[in-house]
Amino acid sequence: MHIWAVANQKGGVGKTTTAVTLAGHLARRGKTVLLVDMDPHGSMTTYFGHDPDSLDQSLYTLFQDVERVMDVIIPTGFENLSLLPASTALATLDRQLGTQEGKGLVLKNGLRSLEARYEYVILDCPPLLGILMVNALAACEHLLLPVQTEFLALKGLERMLRTIAMILNARKHHFIYTIVPTMFDRRTRASLEALRSMREQFGTELWDSVIPIDTQFREASRVGKPLSIMVPSSRGSRAYEALLDRLLGQADNVRHLQLVTS
Ligand SMILES: Nc1ncnc2c1ncn2[C@@H]1O[C@H](COP(=O)(O)OP(=O)(O)OP(=O)(O)O)[C@@H](O)[C@H]1O
Ligand SMILES: [Mg+2]
Fold first, then answer.
1. pLDDT of residue 86
2. Which of 147, 152, 259 shows the shortest CA–CA distance to 205?
3. What's the number of domains the chain is made of?
4. Dist. CA 174–CA 169, nearest whole Å
5. Ligand 1 pocket check for 5: Cβ under 6 Å
6. CA-based diameter of the chain, in Å?
7. Beta partners for 5?
8. Which range of residues forms the domain containing residue 123?
9. Which CATH number do you get for residue 198?
10. What is the pLDDT of residues 43-81, one digit of tens each?
């Protein structure tokens, strides 16, 4: 089971879109995928037609009883694609658990029992640093950082990378990360310049291609379908397919490394 997290403390940069579109591609290729909505706003839960205000069972349940993970998962209506939904109760977790030992590993432990069921798990993180983000970073082997190609977004990225370094140092847990430039508009100077600064500043961790602006993403979220399933040939969908191929290549390298070193 591969666990990928999609995170950035900046809001509206394409985190949920990245999680849903990659998951759609994997599902289309016949892979079993679990999407985990870790955002108390529940955008991804809403995306698939559920109401995060009225769900009885959600990721929150897992934080009360980690054994109940299977009770919480719901189908999305798309083959091979399941959802562990969010509910608004998640917003209270930080206050409740903030300082309790071991609560940073709830998700990692919960996902362990799903090993045989899902080949890929994709975590859609909230735009906040808190117990949920800590859980996501502790559970994942690969972190994706979508960054909007505009100047202000770069500042946010630096902050995010500092946060990650802090968490990594504290936990001695290793994962690789990939910065994914999103909403790229090649007709605007702002996009071109932001991409150039990113390339100068973040060489090797930066994906060497981009996700373009594609208005069909909004349409796909309106009808509740991953764009990769709704219109696989769209520009945006093809860009995520290229990203997926790159991530799968890296996953093979990680596996190879583990075999060599074990
Ligand atoms: N490449 C793109 N082209 C055009 N629109 C996009 C693209 N990616 C995302 N969007 C749209 O931008 C909006 C924000 O995207 P999304 O919800 O994925 O961001 P987010 O980082 O998850 O936001 P939040 O921080 O609020 O969770 C959505 O309406 C989405 O449809
Ligand atoms: Mg989101």
1. 98
2. 147
3. 1
4. 9
5. no
6. 51
7. 123, 143
8. 2-261
9. 3.40.50.300
10. 999 999 999 999 989 999 999 999 999 999 999 999 999
